[in-house]
Amino acid sequence: MRGLMMGRFQPFHLGHLDLVKQILVECDEVIIAITSAQFNYLEKDPFTAGERTEMIHNSLGESGIDMSRCFIMPIENQFNIATWASYLKATLPEFDKVYSGNDYVAMLLTDSGIKVVTPKFLTRSLYNATKIRSMIISGDNWEKFVPKAVADFLKKINANHRLNIVSKSDTKPTEY
């Protein structure tokens, strides 16, 4: 059985890692779909799809997860919501169920005949990428909310500098 989890992973944090582990207890394999792959260097989506792939890959390896059980795949947003489920089926390897705590996503996928499981989340108010990005900008202790591999990667690419520049920019390209 194969489970699918989707997210922007801006950045990948311990809540995401916990969900991967949860899925791998219930399923043989997991597909980690990096959504909004076409967006980067924006306040809401500061990291590229390649950077997010590397963060996830490094975190899974660091955690001792068997990478042969994992697919990490960037996908672009589908703008026709009515065909989104078909797009997922055409773009991703076959999956048996989707793990999502988003009621809107659950409705869309369930209406298309896809099984949706509501996962058990770590404290969502703590493990929140928007909050983590704000903490990086302000210099708060953000490292405790992400895997060490992500903290190392974000320091390597000087994420603090990028986030500070992007958050203060008056250039606000339209994402959606």
Q: Can you describe this structure?
A:
The protein is globular. A five-stranded parallel β-sheet has the order 3-2-1-4-5. The mean pLDDT is 93. It has 176 residues and is α/β, with parallel strands linked by helices. The protein has helices at 14-26, 49-62, 84-91, 103-111, 129-138, 148-156, 159-168, and strands at 2-7, 29-34, 70-74, 97-99, 115-117.
Dominant shape: globular
Low-confidence stretches: none
- CATH superfamily descriptor: HUPs
Average pLDDT level: 93
Q: What does the oligomeric state look like here? A: single chain
Q: Which architecture per CATH?
A: 3-Layer(aba) Sandwich
| Helix percentage range | 40-55%
CATH class: Alpha Beta
The strand count comes to: 5
Report how far apart the termini are: 33 Å
For the largest beta-sheet, the strand count, sense and barrel status come to: 5 strands, parallel
Radius of gyration: 16 Å
Write the layout of secondary structure elements.
Blueprint: E1 2-7, H1 14-26, E2 29-34, H2 49-62, E3 70-74, H3 84-91, E4 97-99, H4 103-111, E5 115-117, H5 129-138, H6 148-156, H7 159-168
Parallel strand pairs: 1-2, 1-4, 2-3, 4-5
Helix pairs in contact: 2-6, 5-7
Q: What labels would you give this structure?
A:
single chain; 176 residues; alpha/beta; Rossmann fold; 5-stranded parallel beta sheet; globular
Quickly describe the structure:
With 176 residues, this protein is an alpha/beta fold. The chain has helices at 14-26, 49-62, 84-91, 103-111, 129-138, 148-156, 159-168; strands at residues 2-7, 29-34, 70-74, 97-99, 115-117.
